[in-house]
Amino acid sequence: MTVIAVADMYGIEAAREDLAGLFERFERDAQREPGCVRYTFAATVADPTQFVLLSEWESQDAMDAHYQSRLFADFQFSLQGLLARPSELTIYSADRAVRPQDTAPMDPRDAD
Fold it and tell me: How far apart are CA 51 and CA 49, in angstroms?
């Protein structure tokens, strides 16, 4: 079963560049972990100090191994002094996913 974790993270404005650099390095390293399908940080449009993490794992066991890894422990330690408040994490599980075949806008001539 696929497991998806979504975290809202709030950086200190003066430390934004340091935080973004940390996220960039950790994103690259986490994507190499067994069972990781996607690991992406993004800054929100409305608040450049707010980041969203989207991580997708092949299984709960893969995600658990990530959270118990030395890599994650080092990442958590590196966050000290860079966050304005605690992160907010929500974990979802899904038994299937659907990707639309054609995401292009419909040609209006085909509507008839």
Answer: 6
Domains along the chain with CATH numbers: 2-94 (3.30.70.100)
Q: What is the pLDDT of residue 105?
A: 76
CA angle centred on 15, ends 90 and 70, rounded to 5°: 55
**Those residues with Cβ within 8 angstroms of residue 61's Cβ, 6 or more apart along the chain or in another chain:** 35
What pTM value is reported for the model? 0.83
